[in-house]
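Sequence in, structure out.
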Amino acid sequence: MNADWVLATLTDALEALEAAIEESEADPDAIDDLLPMAIPAVYAKLNYAWNSRELGAQAIDLVDHDELIAFPKDLPF
């Protein structure tokens, strides 16, 4: 597992979450429109971080995009 890759992808997810929070704080009345777009995007980035953790950047070329952003099959939830 490449720690630098995992940290980079988790940072990307964090930035997406922070952006969603900032947008929600700036316009609380728009939260009903914002959340249906923002939350799936954050989850996709978290899933991508997990699903690409072993292959790193090569995962983009080796794994189907839908699989990369799907909920991880190997987590016990």
